[in-house]
Design a protein that fits this description.
The structure is a single chain. This protein is an alpha+beta fold. It has one domain. The chain contains 5 helices and 5 strands, in the order αβββαααββα. This is Copper chaperone NosL. It comes from Riemerella columbipharyngis. Keywords: Membrane, Transmembrane, Transmembrane helix.
Length: 192
Amino acid sequence: MNSTLSRTSTVIMIVCGLGLLVCHFVPLWAIYLEAPQYPEGLSMFLYTNKISGDYKIINGLNHYIGMKEIHQKDFWEFRVLPYILGLFSMIAFFIAWHRKKIGLYLFCILFLLFGIGFMIDFYFWEYDYGHNLNPNAAIVVPGMTYQPPLIGFKQLLNFGAYSCPDIGGWIMFGVGVLLLIVSIYELKKSKL
């Protein structure tokens, strides 16, 4: 049985490694808010190590309904995510250099588990942010929570909230899909 990656799979591993490097410089996730008083909308972008966009304005608005302020220092993920993606990128290059199928299979499993964990962590952050409200806030609507959607749209009082992957998130999704396709391709090829 041949344990060496095909040339095509090796090139795809290099592409995956480069894609994960690009993720350091582009937003991974975007949250958009629309309301009559903000017709131009408000946006917040999450990178591997920072937040950008209108999050300070969003903090000011969220204060009235008792939501916690968003601060970069509160995200432990910003301290580790650049290193995790850098490590994944190096692993992809290492596998491309050594061309071992077992490395590809292990990397695929590890990266997919990371992606699932990433989404679960983000969901719980949003849950905490939208449910743990200050009971002494200026505006209290009994039973109302303000958890933004993980993906998609949700109406939160007079604000429409949209949440979706941005460039880096789509790259990470693409890397996961490519790893899965290449792993299946190499497994099938091994059985021939």
